[in-house]
Specification:
Elements lengths: L2 E6 L6 H7 L1 E3 L6 H10 L5 E6 L6 E14 L23 E16 H5 L20 E4 L1 H8 L4
This protein binds a DNA duplex through loops.
DNA sequence: GCCAACGTTGGC
DNA sequence: GCCAACGTTGGC
């Protein structure tokens, strides 16, 4: 069983959107590292944090679960889509996505600033806290996962 | 809105 | 295969 963190800009797709739709396909990932993790390592039943980026208080806002393993991201085939990639075609898809189900929304966001306070201790080596980190999908260790859950009330 | 950090592209 | 230029991400 593995743990993950997914970033999203709440203006585009928020935890409240997911709460309403119950499940979603996480399309639009166009980074090879993130793609490889989705395609090769994510399994049904894995848990993931939902992170709000590019917003007034960036941070972790809830939990979701992987309910479908990687399959081709069809938005890459659509010329009108924002994430269209002419180099991906249905015969040899370049980009993949997984399906996620809403589990819970925290009563309060766990701010990035709070997480940073533990960057040298419980949350050492967390990719999210590395300077200049731009990965939109990243792994979380079991210890980090458990610790972060103690930060929400 | 600024800008540092990063991934990708493409010329050579 | 190098690396400069460029576009994007995302915190502040």
């Amino acid at each position: 069983m593995n743990y993950w963190l997914f970033k999203s800009e709440p203006d585009a797709f928020s935890i409240d959107d997911l709460k309403q739709s119950k499940t979603t396909h996480w399309d639009g990932v166009r980074n090879y590292q993130a793609r490889n993790m989705m395609r090769d390592d994510m399994k049904i039943g894995d848990l993931a944090f939902f992170y709000h980026s590019n917003t007034d208080v960036p941070g972790i806002v809830g939990v979701m679960k992987i309910v479908k393993e990687a399959y081709p991201d069809h938005t890459a085939f659509d010329p009108r889509d924002k994430h269209y990639d002419p180099k991906s075609d249905p015969d040899s898809p370049r980009w993949f996505m997984v399906n996620l189900r809403y589990l819970r929304k925290f009563r309060k966001v766990i701010p990035l600033g709070l997480l940073r306070e533990f960057a040298n201790d419980e949350l050492a080596n967390m990719p999210l806290l590395r300077k200049g980190n731009r990965l939109s999908v990243m792994p979380v260790t079991e210890k980090q996962w458990s610790f972060i859950l103690t930060l929400c009330d």
